[in-house]
Design brief:
This protein is of the alpha+beta class and 202 residues long. The protein has two domains: 3-70, no CATH class; 81-201, no CATH class. It has helices spanning 3-12, 17-21, 26-42, 46-52, 57-64, 130-138, 141-158, 172-194, and strands spanning 69-70, 81-86, 89-102, 105-114, 119-126.
Length: 202
């Protein structure tokens, strides 16, 4: 039996996944795990394929069977963005992505978490759409650097460091000026590189 025939049968059945596999010989199951899933991935748009090939198997099967599934990021990355709420009020926040699939659609979600551990979904878009491209640009990594640079500039101008980003023994203004110039330079460099990378790989 060809691997893609097994995959088609798996995708069409409503039976338990393991029960369906029991009907096949071990070498046929091996063909499925090594070839069939890759065969189906290869048939997907490039941006969908590149994301799915790094997803857990259960999530990928849900995508092909047009069922609902969602990834779960239990520990978001600790790379804090510095943002301003107005009137010199600054706070830290980090953004991370999760994915969900339903009815054969792959959706990327942008979520945030603050220093108190409060999580919230900000936005989401179907992979491969223009909305998805705009979303990836809006939350590009170089903008994290730009946000930090804005804070460092504010610190250098006001002589205060409400978030405690700098060591107490440093000359605050000089340290903030240096950090601002470094962050701004790196942000410009990453912005150029950002435009060269397919949006779904960002």
């Amino acid at each position: 039996m060809k691997a893609n025939t097994l995959v088609n049968r798996l995708l069409e059945t409503d039976d338990d996944f393991d029960s369906e596999l029991d009907a096949f010989e071990p070498d046929q199951i091996k063909d499925f795990t090594l070839d069939a899933l890759e065969y189906n991935l290869d048939a997907q748009p490039e941006e969908v394929k590149d994301i799915l090939q790094n997803m857990p198997r259960d999530f990928v099967m849900a995508y092909f069977k047009k069922e609902y599934a969602r990834t779960d990021i239990s520990e978001p990355p600790e790379e804090w963005w510095i943002e301003e709420s107005g009137d010199g009020e600054w706070y830290r926040i980090t953004y991370y992505t999760e994915y969900e699939t339903d009815d054969g659609r792959l959706v990327e979600l942008i979520r945030k978490v603050d220093e108190d551990g409060n999580h919230d979904t900000l936005t989401g878009a179907e992979v491969g759409t223009e909305d998805h491209r705009r979303m990836k640009n809006e939350y590009a990594h170089y903008k994290w650097l730009e946000n930090n640079a804005n804070y460092y500039r504010w610190v250098a101008f006001h002589g205060r460091d409400p978030l405690g980003e700098f060591d107490a023994e440093d000359n605050l203004v000089d340290a903030a000026k240096k950090a601002y110039l470094e962050a701004e330079q790196q942000a410009k460099k990453e912005k150029v590189e950002h435009r060269k990378i397919p949006h779904y790989l960002l």
